[in-house]
Amino acid sequence: MAQYQDELDPITGRKELVDGANVTFHDVTEAVARPIEVPSSRWWIAFIPSVMLLGVYLISIAYLLYMGTGIWGLNNPVAWGWAIVNFVFWVGIGHAGTLISAILFLFRQKWRTSINRAAEAMTIFAVICALQFPTFHTGRPWFIYWPLPLPNQMEMWPNFRSPLLWDVFAVSTYFTVSLLFWYVGLIPDLATMRDRAKTPIRRFAYGLFALGWRGSTRHWLNYEKAYMILAGLSTPLVLSVHTIVSFDFAVSQLPGWHTTIFPPYFVAGAIFSGFAMVLTLLLPLRAWFKLEHIITIKHLENMAKIILLTGTMVGYAYAMEFFIAWYSGNPYESFAFQNRLFGDYWWAYWIMVSCNVITPQFFWIKRIRRSVVWLFILSIFVNIGMWFERFVITVTSLHHDFLPSSWDYYSPTVWDVSTLVGSFGLFFTLFCLFVRYLPTVAIGEVKSVMSIANPHYHGDGAHGERH
Amino acid sequence: MSGLRGLLAEFAGADDVLAAARAARRAGYVALEVFSPYPVEGVAEALAFRSRLAWVTFIAGLLGGATIFLFQGWVHAIDWHLDIGGRRSFAAPAFIVPTFEITILSAALATVFAMFVKNGLPRLHHPLFAIPAFERASQDRFFLFIGADDPRFAESAARAFLESLAPLEVHDVPR
């Protein structure tokens, strides 16, 4: 398979992470900083539709606040509809960002360096989108501060035994720590942008956020330590966040929800969908910003492998749910799963299975893993499938459960649709602003994994040992 | 002492600055600092710098976690008894979840702020920024700095020493 031969690093013998002979540090800085310093007018092609969708979102929320949650298609058995589906969907999207920035860092996976910045930005914007839904899904969002344990004149406290309160702790911690982690990683690159700035406004703005970073050894030593600690803290955090989100379901008594497999299964699904979203975002980004030599086909291939791994775990969880439903001998549990297969929402279930179980298996084939077009198409399918997974879990378990007199059918209204579509507007608006003003690739980190960064590169000849 | 804050030698490669830092240590200089666009392996060891941030993380995490765990117990078992779903007041398994999250939150916040404090950030103005060549410290050049407060520092000798390391240029850092 000669066409798949990648360049190898002369010292470590591993694949080169930055393509092209004689790429210097200066070239990397230029490649990343150029699109920010001399923005292309094509940016508006992405930004204007995003802002229009954001408008759709704002109108939907304004109307919701005016009229109440009754504008959504919720009914009494199905009181959790698209809002919770979207919440879990967006939180899940965020998880790949933390996986790339934290977990791959702990495993010393150097290929993370060119994708971690964009993936972390994706995390933060996805969590912002996610936080909207639990807020506005409440009937009275103006009391949203009541879950916070603030001393008050009523001498009331929140109930710390509810998973919805755990969500407040989990998602707000997740947002804060991800933001810190992202910002800490940005500081050296903001310093680079400051030092390259030609206009006083840029110099001031980047200089302010770079905090006076000088890249001294003392700076780097404490920075690297802090970065590693944050990675170590983010790893259990990211596992706990989707676990806690899964508790919203698993802690209930409902057949189809009361499942001990949910925590790891939700985490695997979150990473699966998150990586798909990273691919959906990075494939156009690397083409438009001409970053193909930094975000190389090897990076994309590695992401496809992780999608294959987590997608297979999700497929296993689907099978295990059915096995346990049968094995439990519980008529409600068996019914819940028969209902998924053949009930009113059979189409949602089969969309979910075909997108989530079949799609990742294409990545066994190297030609597909290394094809930009295939990766893009399949990543969209995964996103659709994972949205339906949350829909199937939430709605099919609720609409038919213990009492047949409380069975109903749930159909979304136009406001459910506009809120979901609009939340993409919020997400893409933030993402467009990010690519316009901040370095989309961690410049300092990419430099440190280039073979010329190795202090032994010049001195010890081509085959020196690293220590 | 003259009007100098120190001398700054500019290098093109990471290996050059690493060798220079080791040579400066051997020559007995202590007020040393290296500036680089990415953390060069081995420089911190060559300059014998250490970081104790992990202690901050540990203590802040411990304090944050213990506080929220005891607080939840106080809320439900002491301050305000409410029978919610027949669960016991001191529902330790349920309290673990916020405890876990707050442990991570306080540890992360403390680590980042301790890192800023240790690094003297934010400090928007610094004498080094007055040197035009220093702009490339965040891009593709490597610098070794010897401070004038070093007990061994004598301007001409230090300059001669830095020149002997074959830098691209030696810059004066004014006060």
Concise description?
Chain A has 467 residues and is an all-alpha fold. Chain A has helices at 25-37, 43-67, 82-106, 116-137, 163-196, 200-210, 217-250, 262-288, 297-328, 331-342, 346-358, 366-369, 372-399, 414-437, 443-449, 456-459. Chain A is globular and about 70 Å long.
What does this structure look like?
Chain A: Keywords: Cell membrane, Membrane, Transmembrane, Transmembrane helix. Chain A: Belongs to the NrfD family. Chain A: It is a multi-pass membrane protein. Chain A: InterPro entries: NrfD-like. The complex is a heterodimer of chains A (467) and B (175). Chain A has 467 residues and is mostly helical. Chain A is built from 16 helices and no strands. Chain A has helices at 25-37, 43-67, 82-106, 116-137, 163-196, 200-210, 217-250, 262-288, 297-328, 331-342, 346-358, 366-369, 372-399, 414-437, 443-449, 456-459. In chain A, α5 runs antiparallel to α7. The longest helix of chain A is centred in the middle third of the chain and has 34 residues, at 163-196. Chain A is globular, with a radius of gyration of 24 Å. Chain B is an alpha+beta fold and 175 residues long. In chain B, α3 packs antiparallel against α4. Chains A and B meet through α1, α5, α7, α15 and α16 of A and α1, β2, α3 and α4 of B.
